[in-house]
Design goal:
The complex is a heterodimer of chains A (108) and B (362). By secondary structure, chain A is α+β, with helices and mostly antiparallel strands. Chain A has five helices and three strands. The model of chain A has no long low-confidence stretch (mean pLDDT 86). The termini of chain B are far apart. In chain B, helix 1 packs parallel to helix 4 and helix 10 crosses helix 12. In chain B, strands 1-2-3-4-5 form a five-stranded antiparallel sheet, with helices on one face. Classes of the chains: A alpha+beta (108), B alpha+beta (362). The interface between A and B is medium-sized, with 22 and 28 residues.
């Protein structure tokens, strides 16, 4: 699973942001929850990816202060990010569909 | 965030990231928020407070590795190194590609990047930029090339350019103003034309030559005026006067002449019957040897620009100097017509047609 995850973390993060804006730790939790704990990211590695996505204009961010605790940095998907996500999802489905086809041929 | 271990983790990330100033401050705040959220969640799950730091640090991953990932964005030395590497690749590519491709390099279609940046420049530096673009596209994502490499390349190019189109554009408006590659090609052709005219004429024809060369220059200037952000009168005083009589490099001039005239040597012979056309190369070489022109364009001023949606009339006031005195001063009028379907067509005339109206002495 770890190898498969390589290169797809950006897509997972974009997908996590597809419904609402989220802060870093919540993104990590959401990916974990929605994958039934199958996808557990190195928590620190999410942040460089988020910053890189922001640099590419795929996500945007804003700070929100809290009554208790340090301010949260919320990330939201941009239109460009949404398009990127749709493209990545298409590629991923095409890939998994192809693998399914071969596995189906093997009857496993 | 009183726990020393957490602080150490954050500091390690920050140190490895090379982030400075507000980037560092933001990153610190974001990491502190991450730890705070993690503590809160783990406490909610009933994890013993003694075990929480270990779990958080373990789940976070290697702070040095994560910091290094930030370094690609925030570390100044890394980013500067990337720029240097990009242009080193470009220059290496120049020396490999130029002998192979020569002027053809200009005719390659790149992509939207080229539309967005002005790369009018000195011949070899423009090739370097284009070659660098090719090479660096293989090395970095297109976004990276756009954000890092090209602006730096354009700065280098602009620093060295002496070409007139740039004189029309205030620096702050450069990045927002599109100059078609047609302009670049026209300027390049002008240089070739200048040298080949230089090579082909005799001393007696100086005035005629000067006018022909000027006309070619002014055609490009008229296109430049099309792009000028305002209709203000624009003066161009040349820090480096444009020498019309210098064959800087004769081999280069031969190549230029052959390229510009597309090998139509008969025209050269017609203009200069003293040359014996026994051998094409020798013919050109002999023509270059003469280095006949001595005029220098010292100043050109856009006297007026009247612009419509797809047409402009540009009037120039130009001064030609000899060794010491003004030897000619004229007004030139050009009509520029723009054709929308141009880019990425390779032929200049598909984009702009420049018609000479008239020239007259003031």
């Amino acid at each position: 699973m770890t190898d498969l995850l390589k290169g797809t973390t950006s897509t997972l993060i974009l997908a996590a942001l597809s419904k609402e804006e989220l802060y870093g730790y919540r993104i990590i939790q959401l990916i974990k929850e929605t994958s039934d704990d199958a996808l557990s990211l190195g928590e620190g590695s999410v942040y460089p990816i988020l910053h890189a996505l922001e640099g590419k204009g795929l996500v945007k961010s804003r700070w929100e202060t809290q009554e208790i605790g340090p301010a949260r940095k919320y990330y939201a998907l941009t239109a460009k990010g949404k398009k990127e996500l749709e493209g990545a999802a298409k590629v991923w489905r095409s890939y998994t569909g192809a693998v399914d086809g071969v596995l189906g041929f093997a009857g496993v | 965030m009183s726990n020393v271990e957490y602080e150490k983790l954050v500091e390690q990330v920050l140190k490895a990231s090379g982030a400075l100033g507000s980037a560092k401050k933001d990153l610190r705040q974001e990491l502190e928020n991450h730890i705070w959220e993690a503590i809160r969640v783990l406490e909610g799950e009933g994890v013993s407070s003694d075990n929480i730091p270990t779990i958080i640090i373990q789940r976070f991953g290697s702070p040095r590795e994560i910091g290094k990932q930030f370094a690609t964005m925030y570390n100044t030395i890394y980013v500067v190194g990337k720029i240097i590497l990009t242009f080193t690749i470009g220059l290496v590519a120049l020396f490999i590609l130029l002998p192979l491709e020569g002027p053809d390099a200009f005719y390659k279609y790149h992509d939207a990047i080229e539309e967005r940046y002005i790369d009018v420049g000195w011949y070899d530096r423009t090739v370097a930029l284009h070659s660098g673009l090719d090479a660096s596209e293989c090395t970095y994502p297109v976004d990276g090339v756009e954000n890092v490499g090209l602006p730096a390349g354009n700065i280098l190019t602009l620093c060295h350019t002496k070409w007139l189109v740039m004189k029309f554009l205030p620096p702050l408006q450069i990045s927002g103003t599109r100059i078609d590659r047609a302009d670049v090609l026209r300027v390049m052709k002008m240089e070739g034309g200048l040298r080949s005219v230089d090579a082909a004429y005799g001393e007696d024809d100086l005035e005629e030559i000067a006018e022909l060369v000027l006309e070619d220059y002014l055609r490009a200037l008229a296109i430049g005026a099309w792009h000028a952000p305002t209709d203000d009168i624009i003066a161009m005083n040349f820090d480096e006067p444009i020498e019309m009589g210098e064959a800087v490099d004769r081999e280069y001039a031969l190549l230029e002449a052959a390229t510009y005239w597309e090998g139509d040597l008969s025209q050269l012979v017609e203009w200069n019957p003293d040359i014996n056309p026994t051998d094409e190369v020798e013919l050109l070489r002999a023509a270059c040897e003469k280095q006949l022109l001595c005029y220098t364009l010292r100043q050109a001023m856009v006297q007026s620009v009247s612009r419509g949606d797809d047409q402009a009339v540009v009037v120039f006031d130009v001064q030609l100097h000899g060794e010491s005195d003004v030897v000619n001063a004229s007004h030139f009028e050009f009509q520029v017509t723009r054709f929308e379907h141009g880019y990425p067509n390779d032929t200049t005339d598909d984009i702009f047609r420049v018609t000479k109206g008239f020239a007259y002495l003031p």
